[in-house]
């Protein structure tokens, strides 16, 4: 008896709900499927299935055996996939989930760089801004560190960052540069409106003094629930906004934006990569994750801003 084949056939019979359906799925004769399950029961010395002319159900022993069987077969499949994966050129699809601002400013440039090295890997990026993202449907989900992730998933920190005040050179020439947090009361302040949250006073922290915090009760000139909209308004000279340093890194280097009110920040941020909890990760997914982490950390490495890394 091929015990591994019998185990797979038994699992398929349970999942398909019958011998005939399992036989069609496996491309075997129904009699062969029935015989393999019977041989397995004979080998174990216990009945795994209760059979009637109209129904099929697991015995208690069958339930216990199937629970362990799934783990064993999963390990066998993972081992085979790992060996095969190492013996062929990296290819296939990596399904990635990310919120809009991360997709535009971090994922898109990273994908371009990654595919120069691995042109046969297709990145399927799904952009969604949801408080409850469907992480389980993707190979990799890049999420805010504040997102609640099921404990059954693996989470890895991509980058630690924080938000800084920015304005366009044109706005600063016209309106002057704030020298202290209280000066924001005399400036046009652009603010992000989070879902379900009411805008209150603007909270600032001083990293040089153990995140000493203060609040300024500014009147917002413009609010939006979309980060890129506020960024575009800032670039157009609409006022001062708070932006993640990893998002505005290139704009600061190019001089299209200028940081103001240093060293004050408005938030400490982090990005996480969440993956299904499994021992084997395809090399294409692992390679893209490593490239993304390196790309994200290099993004802020050239800035004169203290951003601690994990």
UniProtKB/TrEMBL annotation:
Belongs to the LysR transcriptional regulatory family. This is LysR family transcriptional regulator. SUPFAM superfamilies: Periplasmic binding protein-like II, Winged helix' DNA-binding domain. PROSITE patterns: HTH_LYSR. Residues 1-59 form the HTH lysR-type domain. InterPro entries: LysR-type_TF_proteobact-type, LysR_HTH_N, LysR_subst-bd, WH-like_DNA-bd_sf, WH_DNA-bd_sf. Keywords: DNA-binding, Transcription, Transcription regulation.
């Amino acid at each position: 008896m091929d015990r591994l084949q019998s185990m797979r056939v038994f699992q398929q019979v349970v999942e398909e709900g019958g011998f005939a359906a399992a036989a069609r799925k496996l491309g075997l004769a129904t009699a062969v499927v029935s015989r393999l399950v019977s041989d397995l029961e004979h080998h174990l010395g216990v009945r795994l299935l209760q059979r009637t002319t109209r129904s099929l159900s697991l015995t208690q022993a069958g339930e216990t055996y199937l629970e362990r069987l799934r783990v064993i077969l999963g390990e066998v499949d993972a081992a085979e996939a790992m060996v095969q994966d190492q013996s062929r050129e990296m290819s296939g699809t990596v399904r990635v989930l990310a919120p809009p601002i991360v997709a535009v400013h971090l994922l898109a440039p990273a994908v371009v760089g990654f595919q120069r090295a691995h042109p046969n890997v297709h990145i399927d990026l799904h952009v969604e801004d949801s408080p409850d993202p469907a992480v389980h449907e993707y190979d990799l989900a890049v999420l805010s560190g504040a997102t609640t992730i099921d404990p059954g998933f693996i989470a890895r920190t991509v980058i630690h960052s924080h938000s800084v005040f920015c304005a366009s050179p044109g706005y600063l020439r016209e309106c002057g540069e704030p020298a202290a947090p209280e000066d924001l009361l005399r400036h046009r302040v652009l603010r992000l409106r989070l879902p379900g949250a009411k805008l209150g006073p603007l909270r600032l922290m001083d990293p040089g003094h153990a995140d000493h915090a203060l609040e300024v009760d500014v009147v917002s000139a413009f609010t939006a629930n979309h980060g890129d909209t506020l960024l575009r308004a800032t670039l157009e000279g609409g006022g001062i906004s708070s932006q993640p340093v990893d998002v505005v890194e290139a704009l600061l280097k190019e001089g299209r934006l200028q940081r103001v009110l240093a060293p004050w920040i408005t938030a400490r941020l982090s990005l996480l990569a969440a993956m299904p909890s499994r021992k084997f990760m395809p090399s294409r997914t692992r390679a893209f994750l490593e490239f993304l982490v390196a790309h994200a950390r290099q993004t802020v490495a050239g800035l004169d801003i203290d951003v601690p890394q994990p």
